[in-house]
From TrEMBL:
PANTHER family: HIV-INDUCED PROTEIN-7-LIKE PROTEASE, UBIQUITIN THIOESTERASE OTU1. Its main location: cytoplasm. It comes from the Eukaryota. One of its GO terms (molecular function) is cysteine-type deubiquitinase activity. The lineage of its organism: Eukaryota, Cryptophyceae, Pyrenomonadales, Geminigeraceae, Hanusia. Residues 83-94 have a biased composition (Acidic residues). This is Ubiquitin thioesterase OTU. It is found in: Cytoplasm.
Amino acid sequence: MGGQQSSQSKSRTPGLAGTCVESRKKKETAKSKVGGLTSVTSLHASSSVQANSVQHRAFDGKRNVLAPSVSKSKIRRPPSPFTDDESSESDEGEGFLPHLHNASRRLPTKNSRSFAQHPPPRLSSKSLQPRAASIGGANSFPKGTCDKCDGAHPTDSCPIYKKKREDHPDAWRNFGRKTPLEMGKGGGNFKLRSARVISQPGDGNCLFHSMAHSLPGARASSLRREIAEFIKENPDLEIADTPLRDWIKWDSGCSVAQYASRMAVTGWGGGIEMAACSYLKKVNVHVYEKGMLGSYKRISCFDVPSARQTIHVLYRGGVHYDTLIPG
């Protein structure tokens, strides 16, 4: 009896074991299915991330705002010069795109960490230095060619004539031209090969200083008044077949009396004053410009019959007169 029971229990045991094994296999199969689905899902997600990363790298150089991004992810990114956040992680959809919205957030300040890492560019001292004038102007003159005194310094730094001068409002526009409006005769081809320049003050009386220097006992202030009085008393004096009053009207637009009254006190002297001086003092007044190789070219002559002497003045391009002594 006992043997029969033991045999029956033994015969049941394989059945129970088989049932356990079968249930275990079902569980493993279910797990494998779930695991397979999980692995497929993970693989699909990783593939999507990789695809997004590849697409981002393809478009990041062009800063395409339509490039895909990974939401709900934590991604390391390099520090930006436009923000001083301590964390370089991006979330909520910032992803691989450059943080364009942070660019307008605020600029770095001197106290921010990003300012020290990304300081603004500085201009070199060479780029801030002014360039010398290439053409024209007093600074372009070589050393030793001051057009005011012929000194060895730039014209703007002339120690003798420090005042700024304007062009003479005189009748020089008519000189050197063979027209009826020419006050003095042309200078021809005459040149002084050797002459000495006597510099005169640039105080607005330079022409009167230049002529008075060659007139015995004359002074610039007194010569100015004498010439102005002569002009006032001789409005019909013909110079180059033209009355003096017409020369004054063409040159200044005012009457003889007004012109003489103003010239007695102030004003640049010019062709009218040289012509009047030649008749008043019975002298020839010859005008020169600086020429080549140290020579001086005569450009105009104010001559009178039976002249006692000839005065030579140097005309410096509409800004100044000096005395010229031949020899």
